[in-house]
Amino acid sequence: MKHLLLILSLLFLAESAQAQMFSKEKLTNQENFDERFLTWGYFLGFNSYDFKFDYLNQFEDDNTDVVVSGEAGFNVGLIGDMRINDYVNLRLEPGIIFTQRNLTFPRLLEERDFLREVKSTYIHIPLLLKFSTKRINNIKPFIVGGVSTSINLSSNEENPEDNFQGQFRTTKNTSYYELGFGVDFYLYYFKFTPSIRGVFALSNELVYDNDPNSPWTENIDKMLTRGVFINFTFQ
Predict the structure, then answer these.
(1) In the chain, where the domains are located
(2) pTM of the model
C-alpha cells in the first residue's frame, strides 16, 4: 500500500510539473503570493510508519528479528510560513498524525505473545527550511529539510504492565530529522502543494520490559521510527 501511494504521488508530481514547464502559459495566478512575509495554510495527507531495529547480538537465525508491518495512516495540521528571501522560507507545520504498526516476534509460539499492535497518535511539530527554485509559470519545485519533535498521546510509557501482560511500551517524546521535496502550484484562488517527506527518528522509542531477560526486548538495542508523509497543502 505504501509503495503504491508513493509511486502514484511521484507520477502526479512529475506529470503536473512537466505540463506546466513546457506550456506557454503566462504568469497570471497569485503573482504576488511569494512577496508576503507571512502566509498560513493547512495540510491533509497520508503516512506510512515503520520501525528500524538495532540488535545487541546478531544471530544467523532470522527468527530472532522483529518483523514490522505498517498500515496507512492519516495526517492533518496547520502551516505557518515565513519568507526569508526569494528562495528560502522557514516553516512551522504542527499537526496530528494517526498511525499503526504491527510487530511480530517469530520465536514466540503463542499467538497472544508473538503479535503486538502499536497504535500511535502523535502531536508532531516540525521546524523546516524550504529551498525553492525560480518560479516557472505557475509552478515552483522545492526541497525541504529540518528537525521535529512529537508527543505520542497513545504512549503507555508509564504503564507498570509490560509485554508479560500484553503491553508493548513506547516513549512519549521523540525527536527526528526530516527531508523531502514537492511542487508549489499557483492556482487562481490559492496555492496547492503536493509533497513527499521522509521522517527519521533520532531517539530510541522502546521502553524495555521490567525483566531484563524478556524475550520481547532483551536483544533490542534501539527501536527508531521511520516514516513517509504524502501531504497536500492549501495556502
Answers:
(1) 2-234
(2) 0.81
Residue 126 to residue 148: CA distance in whole angstroms? 4
Low-confidence stretches of the chain (pLDDT beneath 70)? 1-27, 58-64, 109-111
For the chain, the C-alpha Rg in angstroms (whole number) is 21
**H/E stretch holding 36:** none
Per-residue b/e over 30-53, b at no fewer than 16 CB within 10 Å?
beeebeeeebebebebbbbbebeb
Contacts of 141 (CB under 8 A, 6+ apart): 17, 132, 133, 181, 182, 183, 184
Mean pLDDT of the chain: 86
Nearest one of 164, 90, 75 to 127, comparing CA atoms: 90
User: Class of the 2-234 domain?
Assistant: mainly beta
CA dist 229 → 24, 32, 65, 109 (Å): 32, 29, 26, 35
For 184-222, write each residue's pLDDT tens digit: 999 999 999 999 999 999 999 999 999 988 888 988 999
Q: What is the DSSP code string of 135-190?
A: -BTTEEEEEEEEEEEEEETT--TT-S--GGGT---B-SEEEEEEEEEEEEEE-SSS
